[in-house]
């Protein structure tokens, strides 16, 4: 099966691959306890934000990370949840509307991570999980770094090589980036603050790590 490059900087397909598979993705990641693992991660690693901070969830999918952020931050912030797939953005909008968090903190936007519709230095904190695996790593990281304020933070949950990741790669048609590449390319713009390995009993730990980095 071929890897799906969802977009280039100048050209995004009219619909993302995720317009077709977002329900399968949402179900898989709800069943595997991803949201709970994110809650536990944020309990021990509070998001590096303060009242009024601007946050971008880049490639938000069906909103699982956006919802975890809303649960983790108990003061007003401004979150933009962006995805290439319009159906996924609609799913995120619904999930946030049905949540008990501060729904008004979140804006929704269809857009391309490789060509973000934001000025330089727009966000204090950018989170991204499972999206950079659909694009050349350097291009994605360059664009995320562009929109982060100096000394702002990036939380990247890169897919790490494992048997589980290989199965996910086949099912969801992405390609992981090598951990060495992730570290080296992150270091072009950021200083790594923390590299967290999820506990082995959490399903997320079989395929992902969490890299918190600060823009230099
Ligand atoms: C594996 S899902 C991850 C969703 C979510 N971040 C999460 O943690 O549950 C990958 C998402 O990245 C989105 N994506 C892929 N390429 C993208 C691009 N160039 N711009 C914006 N979103 C993109 C897909 O549409 C999909 O919703």
Can you give a write-up of this model?
The chain has 216 residues and is α/β, with parallel strands linked by helices. It has a single domain, classed as 3-Layer(aba) Sandwich (Rossmann fold). It is 35% helix and 22% strand. It has a 7-stranded mixed β-sheet with strand order 3-2-1-4-5-7-6. Strand 2, helix 4 and strand 3 form a beta-alpha-beta unit. The termini are far apart. S-adenosylmethionine binds next to helix 1 and helix 3.
Q: Mean pLDDT score, rounded?
A: 94
CATH homologous superfamily annotation: Vaccinia Virus protein VP39
Indicate the multimeric state: single chain
Shape: globular
Number of helices: 7
What portion of residues belong to β-strands?
Answer: 15-25%
Write down the CATH class: Alpha Beta
Main β-sheet description: 7 strands, mixed
DSSP E strands, number: 7
Q: Are there runs of 5+ residues with pLDDT below 50, and where?
A: none
Could you give the order of the helices and strands? HHEHEHEEHEHHEE
Number of domains: 1
According to CATH, what is the topology? Rossmann fold
- From the 3D coordinates, which CATH architecture would you assign? 3-Layer(aba) Sandwich
| Structural class assignment | alpha/beta
- Heterogens: S-adenosylmethionine
Strand order of the largest sheet: 3-2-1-4-5-7-6
